[in-house]
Amino acid sequence: MGYAFDFSPVWEGMPSLLKGCLGTFALAISGMILATVIGIGGVILRHSHFPPVRWLVMTFVELIRNTPFLVQCYFIFFALPLLGEQLGVAIFNLGLMDKPGNLLKLGPTATAIIALGVNGGAYAIEIIRGGVQSINKGQVEAGLALGLHRTQVFRLIVLKPALRAIYPSLTSQFTLLTLTTSVASAIAAYELTSVAEIINGNSFRTFEVYFTVTIMYLIISSLMAVGFNALSRRYFSYPVK
Amino acid sequence: MTVTLEVAQSSSPTSASVPMIVMEHVEKWYGQFKALSDIDLTVRTGEKIVLCGPSGSGKSTLIRCINHLEAYNKGRITVGGKVLGDDPKIIDAIRREVGMVFQQFNLFPHMTVLQNCTLSPMRTRGLDKKAAEAIARRLLDRVRILDQADKYPAQLSGGQQQRVAIARALCMEPKVMLFDEPTSALDPEMVKEVLDTMISLAEDGMTMICVTHEMGFARQVADRVIFMAAGEIIEEGHPKDFFTAPRHERTRAFLGEILRHH
């Protein structure tokens, strides 16, 4: 047993690690909000009267769910700016801009949030759609019979019970999203894993660093679970038979 | 068919001669299946109609066409002078004047009784919360359930839920009420409280169309009883004549079947 544990680099790096935790939180929560918006919006479009809109949503869902998250990050971070450059030149040539700019060049944090939101959103569409399908048709009819529009019926009558029905699946998807933020270290977004990589690179205290980070992720996930439960109690506590 | 209407008409002194609902040659298809066949029906203001018939005879489909929960394929339906077509604005306008009560109550589970009642008046009639709640409380009191205003539907019995559903529809201050088998999903001991509510509504002069097999109710309040089978109106008449001297064999068979259990 020749290995001597030395946590001092971890203690010295603790302020950065805690800041990394905050970064992870920020990415996760922004990603979840975006994913929820995409999820609910996608479900509305998925029920559109206009078939091409439905196909577009279905294609989006299949595209995202059948490609790796890391590749999606790389695509947004490295590939989109190349497209944006060409687009910028084209717009400049049309005389709509003073100088050729790049509309699709995003920083690591923005890239991470969009990738997390888009990826989580594709899964959320499928989950929320299941919830919407579980709602009794009579609920919709009662709303329509009261003179509410289709969109009002969805927003005021269907959505909440539908979200309640699938809340456990949605939160487990969002826990996964929280942990997936670590992949964003690959594009150097500011979060816990990228901080850990820096401390590990400087100290070579690999076990100590990743042991600590593992515990920190566990704590982050647990805090998320506490938050999810609080939201559930706040919004979904009405009695059902 | 329409000749018999005039007889029933005279027995109801409150009914003005203004037609509230006019259905002319209405047809409805589900694919190859003809659900409604050449329906002619005029309902005058204040009239109470009971629709009965075997299951699958089209009676629910008929009333669901009146507020466009089902689109009809042929003919014409006029409600309160407005022709019901595909124009969503007209459909919404008609729905706001036509209340509906369903077999399964269909209360919104995530809203309290009071919120169920104020939702549409606030969203579609532009009432503020205070005004909507005042109307809701008055009508909840009317169906004798005001003390449950802050409960959720799942905390109420079936009979209580159905009375809330009636109050919720009344909060729109409708000109017509449609009842789609309102007591069929209830435990027997709760049927009476719902029927009593409907009777009191009828006594106040509400125009009503009820799909029901409660023949006691039909005898007591109906101006006309209509019997349907296979998507057609087979026979209609004043309840006194309808129950004592049904003219058609199918009506007799049907009445024999349901009255045996009463």
Compressed to H and E, one letter per element, the order of chain B equals HEEEHEEHEHHHEHEHEEHH
| Helical content class of chain A | over 70%
| Chain pair sharing the greatest interface | A-B, 22 and 29 residues
Q: Any idea what the radius of gyration of chain B is?
A: 18 Å
Instruction: Summarize the helix and strand pattern of chain A as letters.
Output: HHHHHHHHH
Q: How does the helix and strand content of chain A classify structurally? A: mainly alpha
- Overall 3D form of chain B: globular
Tell me about the largest β-sheet of chain B: 6 strands, mixed
Mean pLDDT figure of chain B: 91
The poorly predicted ranges of chain B are 1-15
- Global mean pLDDT of chain A: 94
Spatial ordering of strands, largest sheet of chain B: 6-7-8-3-9-10
Number of helices of chain A: 9
What's the quaternary structure here?
heterodimer
Helix content class of chain B: 25-40%
Radius of gyration of chain A, taken over Cα atoms and rounded to an integer in Å: 22 Å
Number of helices of chain B: 10
Write the layout of secondary structure elements.
The complex is a heterodimer of chains A (241) and B (262).
Chain A: H1 8-12, H2 14-46, H3 51-65, H4 69-93, H5 108-133, H6 137-145, H7 150-180, H8 192-203, H9 206-235
Chain B: H1 3-10, E1 19-30, E2 33-44, E3 48-52, H2 59-66, E4 74-79, E5 82-83, H3 88-95, E6 98-101, H4 113-124, H5 129-142, H6 158-170, E7 176-180, H7 188-203, E8 207-211, H8 215-221, E9 224-229, E10 232-237, H9 239-244, H10 249-259
Parallel strand pairs in B: 3-8, 3-9, 6-7, 7-8
Antiparallel strand pairs in B: 1-2, 1-4, 4-5, 9-10
